[in-house]
Amino acid sequence: MVAIIKTGHSIHTIFNYNENKVKQGVAECIGEGNYPVDVDKMNGTMKLNRFLKQASLNDNVKRNSVHISLNFDPSENHSKEKLMDIANTYMKKIGFGEQPYLVYQHHDAGHPHIHLVSLKIRADGSRIDMQNIGRNQSEVARKEIEKSFGLVVAEGRKNKLNIELQPISAGKVRYGRIQSKKAIANVLNEVLSSYKYASLAELNAVLQQYNVLADRGNENSRIFQGKGLVYRILDENGKPIGVPIKASDFYNKPTLKFLEGKFVSCPTGQTSAKSRVKNAIDMAFLGTQLSLTEMVQLLEKDGINTVFRKGNEGLLYGITYVDHTTKCVFNGSTLGKQYSAKAIQERCGFSSVVKQKMTGLNSEKLQGIRDETPNSEIIAALFGDDFQNNKYVGSDTIMGQLADMLSQSEYAANYVPNQLKGKKKKKKRRGQSNNQ
Description:
Blueprint: E1 2-8, H1 11-24, E2 27-33, H2 44-55, E3 65-71, H3 80-93, E4 101-106, E5 113-119, H4 134-149, H5 158-163, H6 170-173, H7 177-194, H8 200-207, E6 212-215, H9 222-225, E7 230-234, E8 240-246, H10 256-265, H11 271-285, H12 292-301, E9 304-310, E10 316-323, E11 328-331, H13 332-335, H14 341-347, H15 350-357, H16 363-372, H17 375-383, H18 385-388, H19 395-407
Antiparallel strand pairs: 1-3, 2-4, 3-5, 4-5, 6-7, 7-8, 9-10, 10-11
Helix pairs in contact: 1-2, 3-4, 16-19
C-alpha cells in the first residue's frame, strides 16, 4: 500500500473533486467517519456542511483541508468492507480517528485505490500539526496495516512502477473524454513528480514516450496568449488526436504556471546525471561507425530515449535525451557541443558516407542527375531510406553538400606550397677545402 497525503486551502475543492467523480460514474462514496448518520442517508449538502461547520471554528488555519489516497497493488481486489476497515485503521493511526472524514473508492486508474477527505481543525478549534506526518505517522501506519491486513508490501516498489508505466493506447481512448482524461492523468501522476526537466520541451520529450503532449497551441491562439495549457493524446505518428483537456480540469492542476515553478527549481545541472548520459553516448560510438538509428537503439539498452526535434521542412535541429534511470532530461547542447544535433550527425559519419558513395561521379554527372531525378529518389538510391526520410538532414541540404564535395579539388594531406618550403642546405664534397 502506498499513502499520499496532500493539504489544500479549500474543503470545497477536494469535496467537489470526489463528488464529481461519483457523478461521472468512476467513483462511489463507500463510507464515512464521525458523521451523525450513514453516508447513504446523506445528500451532498449534508456531507459538506459537516466539514464547513467544524472548519469555521478556526479561521486562522488557511490550509485546512486534507486529501489522502491509499493505493494498492493492481493484483489486489478488496471488498468495500475491507477498504473501510483499512481506512478507519489508517486514520486512527495517523491521529485523525476523531476527525470527520469521507471515503471514496475510485475506479479511474490502473490500480485499486481509495480517497479520504478530511480537515485539520479539531472539534475544539485547535489545529492538527501535519509537519512530517508523511514520514512519521503515515509510514508506521502503512507498514502495520500491510502486515495486519495481508497487503502487498510497497517497500521498494515505487521505482518499478515508474519503469513499467506503459504508453497510452490511442485506439482505446481517442473518442472518449473520460477515458482520455483517465489515461493522461495516469501518465502525469508518474512523470510530473518523478522526472527532472527545465522546460516545456524537455517535459514533452518525456510525455511523448507515453503518447501524451502538453500543448500551448500556436502563438496566435487564444490559449497561448492567455498562458493556458492543454494535454493531448498522440497517435502512432506523433500527431494529436481526440479531445484536448485543459490542465485546470485535472485534480493536480498541472497548469503552465505550475510547470514553470518546477522548471525554476529543477536541478538539471546534476553532474553525475549528465556524466551518465554523456558516457553512454561516447561508449556507443567507441571504436565503431554508427547511424542515428543504431545510436538510438544502443542508448535504449541503457534506459535512455533519444528525441529528435525537426523543423517544418524536416530538418533536424535539436536532440533531447531522456534518462529513465536518473529521471533526468537534457538537451544535447546542455551536455556539450559534441552531443548537439549537428555534432551527433557528424559523428554518425554523414560526410564520409557521402564521399564513399559518390566516388567516380563528377559535378557534370551530378548536375545531369539532378535535372532528371527528384532529390528524394537520388538520396534513396545513394544512401538508403534513412536519408530519404530526412533522418539526418534535409534532401536539399544533402544535394548541396554533394555538389560542394564534388567541386572541391583533391589534395594530399602532406602537401606544402613551394613558397613555404625551407631552402635545402648544400652538401659539402669530401676533400674540398674551405679555401677553394
